[in-house]
Write a structure and sequence with these properties.
Layout: E1 7-12, E2 21-27, E3 34-41, H1 46-61, H2 68-81, E4 88-96, E5 99-105, E6 109-113, E7 118-120, H3 127-133, E8 159-163, E9 167-171, H4 173-176, H5 181-188, H6 194-204, E10 211-216
Helix pairs in contact: 1-2
């Protein structure tokens, strides 16, 4: 049996009417498969929250052996089949023998961390990033316009990455668009409450969005698991 990593999830509602973030995890009893999923609903509406919960539920029910892209596609199928108009962005991490397979759409992020450094491994699917890639000027509004989502992405548009060592941090933009890399690393130095502190700090520093994080400890980290309050 493979040792299960320790993980910690937390979410806080920012100055919004609804917390449209969602997060979830499924771990096989024998330790052979673990799926982490974090979604952020597009818009401040119950439909967005429902889409995020639907995507996370479908992603974490997908067998880890199918891979990270298949996990995102399963989430897409569930959102499309739900009949609702809501949409969301999503990042998933699937544990493999080599580490973690990452897949994402939109601007939910994954970071690798080893207790000493934190490194972003996803690349935002936003209009701002598209313009940066083409060396064009960027306006603040572009940071909030996603170019892929669970509902709309084609399979070839799903981003992929691999993390081979250490732990993981998955965040909604309410965390990573408010906190700097050094601030996140300082908080990750408190592994027993890192997820809670990440979202609390993001909100307290004036974050304008909901904030959600999943912290997966690197080998040897002493993390605890906190009950996650699902989106309203």
């Amino acid at each position: 049996m493979r040792d299960l990593p320790h993980w910690h999830t937390a979410s806080a509602q920012g100055p919004r009417k609804h917390n449209a973030d969602a997060a979830g995890t499924y771990a096989a009893a024998d330790g052979t498969g673990i799926v982490f999923a974090l979604a952020d609903g597009v818009g401040d509406h119950p439909n967005a929250a429902y889409a995020a919960r639907t995507a996370v539920s479908a992603a974490t029910r997908t067998a880890a052996g199918r891979g990270a892209v298949a996990t995102v596609l399963a989430a897409q199928g569930a959102v499309l089949a739900s009949g609702g108009p809501g949409d969301c962005v999503l990042v998933v991490a699937v544990r493999t023998d080599e580490g973690y397979g990452i897949a994402w759409v939109g601007d939910a992020r994954a970071y690798a961390w080893d207790g000493y450094s934190v490194r972003q491994v996803t690349k935002d699917h936003t209009l701002a990033q598209y313009f940066r890639d083409h060396e064009q000027p960027v306006t603040p509004r572009m940071e909030h316009v996603v170019t892929t989502s669970v509902r709309t992405a084609g399979e070839h548009e799903i981003g992929t990455a691999t993390v081979t060592t250490g732990g993981l941090l998955l965040t909604s933009d309410g965390v990573h668009k408010t906190l700097s890399g050094p601030t996140m690393l300082d908080i990750l130095a408190m592994p027993d409450r890192a997820a809670t502190e990440l979202v609390r700090t993001a909100i307290s520093l004036g974050g304008s969005d909901n904030a959600t994080a999943i912290v997966v400890g690197p080998p040897g980290a002493d993390l605890t698991t906190e009950k996650f309050r699902v989106a309203a």
